[in-house]
């Protein structure tokens, strides 16, 4: 595949805005699509302030920041992704919603375009099956926040071609990321290990073993993690954590992956973490 010049990013939340920023910082023309205009407004603000932080730290020049901002377009019209060479989807973690999007993207994008998903846990093979280009569908899983975190987990579906894999790897390398490769099983590598730990932290809180502060301090100072599991859950989004636990539970068929009732209760109550101001902790 020829070098990627035009990047489409679908979903302008925490992850999509960071992926769009990365693309623009590394010379790609980027269309960031979200159905919610408020999300686009927030994405624009967060990308500008993140780029400005890179300038303040001397990591990029003011000119590079201005150029990157000039390479970004925000839209709610999916037809604008027609000329994208490579698309990364970062919408809500729901297989049905993602499949609908893949069907639409398959219709409107050029036949050579690669369709990548930033899914944390959902089967790439099943997402690919919604399209007529199964060999051009792949998992490209960035970590949060994408401009800072060094890892990209690449997931090949059952039909992903070598060409698609190499183009995705080349794009991740252009973003200066370290790559790991996973087989297409629920949760892949990182979330298969991380989410049960977060879920267990919720069980530890739920069963009254310790306070939230002691659980987080225990894991920070006791195991040298930079952030405690409950703080991390708030950062990721409790809704995203719950969706991933459900995928692990259904996909791996073991009761050890059953979501903790306290995690379910927080999500039901709209306490989804930092992005709404309250989760396990209160940020208001
Ligand atoms: P988010 O809730 O912050 O953002 C999702 C965005 O997608 C919202 O702005 C929403 O308006 C938009 N959206 C929903 N349906 C859409 C559609 N059909 N078309 C266009 N836009 C649509 O979510 P997030 O945390 O950025 O997660 C997005 C994806 O990235 C999920 O698949 C998640 O599992 C994955 N992921 C999340 C993290 C994390 O730490 N939060 C890390 C790695 C991967």
Structural summary, described in words:
This protein is α/β, with parallel strands linked by helices. The chain has two domains: 6-182, NAD(P)-binding Rossmann-like Domain (Rossmann fold), CATH 3.40.50; 191-274, N-(1-d-carboxylethyl)-l-norvaline Dehydrogenase, domain 2 (Orthogonal Bundle), CATH 1.10.1040.10. The protein is built from eleven helices and eight strands. Strands 3-2-1-4-5-6-7-8 form an eight-stranded mixed beta sheet, with helices on both faces. Helix 7 (190-206) crosses helix 9, helix 7 (190-206) packs across helix 10 (238-252) and helix 10 (238-252) packs across helix 11 (261-268). The mean pLDDT is 97. The structure holds nicotinamide-adenine-dinucleotide. Nicotinamide-adenine-dinucleotide (NAD) binds at residues 10-16, 33-36, 39, 90-93, 97, 101, 118-120, 141-142, 144, 236-237, 240.
Helix and strand topology:
Layout: E1 6-10, H1 14-25, E2 29-33, H2 37-56, H3 62-70, E3 72-75, E4 86-89, H4 95-108, E5 114-117, H5 124-128, E6 137-142, E7 151-156, H6 162-174, E8 178-182, H7 190-206, H8 212-223, H9 229-236, H10 238-252, H11 261-268
Parallel strand pairs: 1-2, 1-4, 2-3, 4-5, 5-6, 7-8
Antiparallel strand pairs: 6-7
Helix pairs in contact: 1-2, 2-3, 7-9, 7-10, 10-11
The chain binds nicotinamide-adenine-dinucleotide.
Nicotinamide-adenine-dinucleotide binds next to helix 1, helix 4 and strand 6.
């Amino acid at each position: 595949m020829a070098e990627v010049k035009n990047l489409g990013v679908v979903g302008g939340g925490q992850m999509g805005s960071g992926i769009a920023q990365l693309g623009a910082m590394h010379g790609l023309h980027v269309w960031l699509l979200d159905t919610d205009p408020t999300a686009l407004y927030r994405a624009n603000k967060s990308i500008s302030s993140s780029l400005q932080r890179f300038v303040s730290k001397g990591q990029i020049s003011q000119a590079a920041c201005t150029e990157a901002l000039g390479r970004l377009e925000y839209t709610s019209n999916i037809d604008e992704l027609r000329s994208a060479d490579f698309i990364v989807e970062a919408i809500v973690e729901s297989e049905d919603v993602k499949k609908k999007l893949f069907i639409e993207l398959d219709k409107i994008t050029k036949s050579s375009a690669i369709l990548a998903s930033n899914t944390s846990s959902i089967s790439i093979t099943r997402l690919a099956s919604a399209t007529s280009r199964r060999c051009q569908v792949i998992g490209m899983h960035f970590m949060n926040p994408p401009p800072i975190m060094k890892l990209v987990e690449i997931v090949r579906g059952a039909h992903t071609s070598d060409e698609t894999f190499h183009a995705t790897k080349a794009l991740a390398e252009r973003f200066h990321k370290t790559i790991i490769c996973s087989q297409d099983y629920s949760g892949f590598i990182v979330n298969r290990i991380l989410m049960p730990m977060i879920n267990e932290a919720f069980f530890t809180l739920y069963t009254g073993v310790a306070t939230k502060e002691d659980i987080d301090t225990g894991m920070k100072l006791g195991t040298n993690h930079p952030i405690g599991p409950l703080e991390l859950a708030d950062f990721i989004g409790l809704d995203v954590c719950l969706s991933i636990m459900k995928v692990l539970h259904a996909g791996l068929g073991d009761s050890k992956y059953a979501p903790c009732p306290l995690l379910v209760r927080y999500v039901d109550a709209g306490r989804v973490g930092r992005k709404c101001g309250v989760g396990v902790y209160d940020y208001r």
